[in-house]
Each structure stands twice: as structure tokens, then as C-alpha cells.
Write a structure and sequence with these properties.
By secondary structure, this protein is an all-alpha fold. The chain is 68% helix and 0% strand. The radius of gyration is 28 Å and the shape is elongated. The two termini are 34 Å apart.
Length: 160
């Protein structure tokens, strides 16, 4: 069965270098502003979401307008800095997320097409091996390793 070739990407070495340099520059520029959380920290931190944002914005506005209501240990200016960073970094994150989604889709499609091409070649080599075309059997034997079941998957299937 013929397959449709929907993608053919060839980045020039110059474009690849320019992209890598640009990404490194973005990483280096952002590095002083970013933190890495442990899985436990990510789990335990209260999360601000789209539904929470209006509450936080109102609370900040009220805290700024009513300093007498803010406890002494609440730094309202730092509260505002945190919110400003949420706005700035969310804008960057949305751009990066869009780029990431497009890159993932492109890699998925290119990989799918490459895998289909490999399967097409493999099936052709199997047919060639059946009619004793020289060299075909060795190729089929090597490529067929991809489809061998491991002992653990075989034993799992036999116990089911």
C-alpha cells in the first residue's frame, strides 16, 4: 500500500545553527529568572489557575488599596512582583507551548512516515527472501528483531 508523503523537512545547517544559537540565547537570558522544583514541591504547592487568577488579581488590588488590612508579614510590593512575573512568563510560556506542540506534531508525522517507509521496505525484503533473492534473508533476519516478543511479554500473555 502506498503512503502519502505529507512532510519533507530539511533544515539547512545554517538554519539549524541559527535556531540552536537562538534557543541557547533564550535559555541563557531566562536562566537567572527560572527555578527548578522537585516533584514533591510541585505536588504540595497551591496552584494558580485560570479560575484562581481573578481572585488573586482582586486580592492584590484590595491589598494595594487597603494597606491597613494587610498583615505586617505580607509584602504587598512582592505580591505585585509575583503577579507581574506570572503575566510576563505566561506570555512566554504560551509561545513556547505553541512552538512545542508544532515541533511535536512535526516530529510525530516525520517519524510516522519514516516508520511506514521502513515497514514497506521490510515487507518488500520479506517477499524477496521468500523467492531467495541474495542478501534479502540477512536483512529480514536483522530487521525482524524489532518484532520479536521478549520472554517477559510472552510469559505475561501465557498467564492471562
Amino acid at each position: 500500500m502506498a503512503y502519502e508523503n505529507r512532510i519533507s523537512v530539511r533544515l539547512s545547517p545554517e538554519d539549524q545553527q541559527r535556531i540552536n544559537e537562538s534557543l541557547r540565547a533564550v535559555q541563557e537570558t531566562l536562566k537567572p529568572y527560572l527555578v527548578a522544583l522537585t516533584p514533591e514541591e510541585r505536588k504540595t504547592l497551591p496552584k494558580m489557575s485560570d479560575r484562581t487568577t481573578p481572585f488573586v488579581e482582586k486580592a492584590l488590588s484590595y491589598a494595594q488599596a487597603n494597606p491597613a488590612l494587610s498583615p505586617a508579614f505580607l509584602n504587598v510590593e512582592e505580591f505585585k512582583v509575583d503577579m507581574d512575573s506570572v503575566y510576563q512568563l505566561t506570555e512566554l510560556l504560551r509561545t513556547v507551548d505553541q512552538l512545542s506542540a508544532l515541533l511535536n506534531d512535526t516530529v510525530l508525522l516525520a517519524g510516522s512516515e519514516a516508520y511506514e517507509a521502513a515497514l514497506t521496505f521490510y515487507n518488500s525484503a520479506k517477499q524477496a527472501a521468500k523467492v531467495n533473492v541474495p542478501g534479502a534473508k540477512g536483512i529480514v533476519d536483522d530487521l525482524s528483531k524489532r518484532f520479536e516478543k521478549t520472554r517477559s511479554s510472552e510469559s505475561k500473555m501465557s498467564t492471562v
